[in-house]
Amino acid sequence: MPEGHSVHRIARQFGLHFVGRRVSASSPQGRFAAGAARLDGHEMVDAKAVGKQMFLEFDHHLWLRVHLGMYGAWDFAGDITADATIASAGGRMGQTNQHGTVVGAHEDSLSSIGAPRRARLRMAEQEKLGASVESFPPEPVGAVRVRLLTDVTCADLRGPTACDVLTPDEVLAVIAKLGPDPLVDKGKKAEDRFTATVVKKPTPIGLLLMDQSVVSGIGNVYRAEMLFRARLNPHTPGRNVPEEVVRGLWRDWVKLLRIGVKTGQMLTMDGLRGARYEAALASRDDRHWVYHRTGKPCRVCGTPIVMEEFGGRKLYWCPVDQA
C-alpha cells in the first residue's frame, strides 16, 4: 500500500499539471460514471494529500477523494515532467522492491525538473517511468475507474479502495477523523496532539503507528523502521512509552516523510553518502534497518531479524536491540 510520501508526491503531480486547468472527467470502466459527470468540464483548483488520502478540488466546490488502498495506482500520460529521481533510476523507482544500479543526480522532486515531455508515469507504491506516448490521449488500458484529461495531460485511476465526490463539509469530516500529517499539520501543536493520543492508549505502539486516526501516512515499512530507529519494542503499550520517546517518534516521522517526498524512496538509514546513497536508492536491501530482512543479521547487534504477524501485517524487528 502506498505510504504517505507517495500520496503527497501524486498530489504534487496533479498540482503541477492539472491545477488551474479545465478537466474532462470520465469513467472508461463505467463504475464511476455518475461521479465523473459531476466533475466533467470544471477547473481543478487544488490538490492536496493528508496521510494516505488525496483530495482534488474543482471550481464548483466539489472534491474528488481517492484512497489507493492495496492495489490502486495513477497512470499519468502526455506532457508530464519526470521526477529527477525516476529519470536517474532509468524509470524504475520502487519504494519497496526496486533492484539495480542508480546513476545520476537526485534533485528535489517536482521542483527541479526539466521541461515536460510526452511520456507515461505510473505512481502508486512504486513509481515507474514508461515509454513515450505516440498519440494523445492514449487509449484507456484495463479497468480505468476515472480518467482526468486536460488538453495535454491525462491521469487514469485504477483499483482504488475509495473514490468519491465530496462536498467541502464532507471533506472536512473525513480529514477530522485522521491523525496529524507533518506536511499538513505543522509545528508543536501537531506533535502535542500525537503525543497526547499515544500516551493514554493501552494499545501496543506497533499498532498505534499504523492507526490513521492517531497519525497519518505511516504504513508497514515506516512502522518497522521507526520502531527500530527508536529501539522500541513494538508490543509496548502506548501509555508505557516515555513521553520523550513518543515525541521523538513524531520528530522522526517529520524527518523521514520529508526525505520520502523529496527522493521518492523510503530511505530510513542515516549517514548514507556517495556509493552507499546510490545503492540505497537502487535497492531496498541497502535502504532499511529491519524491513523485509527476516533471518538476516541486525545491522547493529548481529541478531537475526524476526518477522511476525502483527495487526494483520508483517512486522520486522530486532529482538535484542528492541527488547
UniProtKB/TrEMBL annotation:
SUPFAM superfamilies: Glucocorticoid receptor-like (DNA-binding domain) (SSF57716), N-terminal domain of MutM-like DNA repair proteins (SSF81624), S13-like H2TH domain (SSF46946). It holds the Pfam family zf-FPG_IleRS. It is an enzyme of class 4 (lyase). It comes from the Bacteria. Its EC number is 4.2.99.18. Keywords: DNA damage, DNA repair, DNA-binding, Endonuclease, Glycosidase, Hydrolase, Lyase, Metal-binding, Multifunctional enzyme, Nuclease, Zinc, Zinc-finger. Residues 289-323 form the FPG-type domain. The keyword Cell division does not apply. The keyword Membrane does not apply. Residues 2-90 form the Formamidopyrimidine-DNA glycosylase catalytic domain. GO terms for molecular function: class I DNA-(apurinic or apyrimidinic site) endonuclease activity; hydrolase activity, acting on glycosyl bonds. Its cofactor is Zn(2+). Belongs to the FPG family. This is DNA-(apurinic or apyrimidinic site) lyase. It comes from Antiquaquibacter oligotrophicus. The lineage of its organism: Bacteria, Bacillati, Actinomycetota, Actinomycetes, Micrococcales.
